[in-house]
Write a structure and sequence with these properties.
about 80 residues, mainly alpha, 4 helices
């Protein structure tokens, strides 16, 4: 198995893990149990990993962090909106 394929598979697992949280928060509009500080730190970290992936030209890392940023950013935005 190539390193890129392994990276894409890992990215699908770790990034896809956020999808149920986004769906639940979107449908229920209930974000009380979501930690704002955790998501602020996490989104910042994902943004930094995205920048790193771009700098080293690593597409599995870049794409995974781009999608994760969108998903985690959506949860953060829902938390800000619905508190």
């Amino acid at each position: 198995m190539s390193a890129d394929l392994l990276g894409y598979l890992a990215a699908c697992c770790t990034t896809g893990a956020f999808l149920p949280q986004v769906i639940q928060a979107w449908k229920s509009r209930d974000t009380r149990a979501i930690s704002m500080p955790m998501y602020l730190v996490f989104v910042t970290g994902v943004l930094l990993w995205l920048a790193y992936g771009l700098q080293i030209n690593n597409w599995p890392m870049t794409l995974a962090n781009l999608v994760t940023l969108v998903l985690a950013g959506t949860v953060l935005a829902l938390k800000l909106k619905y508190g």
